[in-house]
Amino acid sequence: MTATVDPPAKQMARFIVLYDTPSDIEAFERHYNDVHIPLARRYPGLRRFTRSHEPATVIGEPCYMVVMMDWDDMVALQAALGSEIGRRTAEDAVANLARYATFRGMILQLDEV
User: Fold this and answer.
1) Taking the CA atoms of the chain, what radius of gyration do you get in angstroms?
2) What is the 3-state secondary structure (H, E, C) of 33-94?
3) For the whole model, what pTM was predicted?
4) What is the pLDDT of residue 111?
5) What is the dihedral of CA 42, 45, 50, 56, to 10 degrees?
6) Mean of the pLDDT values across residues 46-68?
7) SS3 per-residue string spanning 7-21
8) 3-class DSSP state for residue 32?
9) Which domains does the chain have, with CATH numbers?
10) pLDDT grade, residue 104 (50/70/90)?
11) How far apart (Å, rounded) are the C-alpha atoms in residues 27 and 99?
12) Using CB atoms within 10 A of its CB, is residue 94 exposed (0-12), middle (13-18) or buried (19+)?
């Protein structure tokens, strides 16, 4: 009997940002849509950019918006965050979005099983 070997699991990397409810929703959305999204979409190697407004909270505190960005792997994600556009996007978030909302981010390595 010959043993079969499963192919290695595909790994992807995801950057998630959770935004609390902005103090000025209109100003936040205007800047986010007009400036921040166009910057973030220029991340090198970005495969997917999705967001969800007012996600249903199952456990923990609710948030206003969740943004998810996917790359092929952790190396590509880290390179994107360290790139010139990555620095500009981070600077924009701190200088402009933080005026209206508290936010937090996390990086996930996704293993397909």
Assistant:
1) 17
2) HHHHHHHHCCCCCCCEEEEEECCCCCCCCCCCEEEEEEECCHHHHHHHHHCHHHHHHHHHHH
3) 0.85
4) 85
5) -120
6) 94
7) CCCCEEEEEEEEECC
8) helix
9) 11-111 (3.30.70.100)
10) very high
11) 10
12) exposed
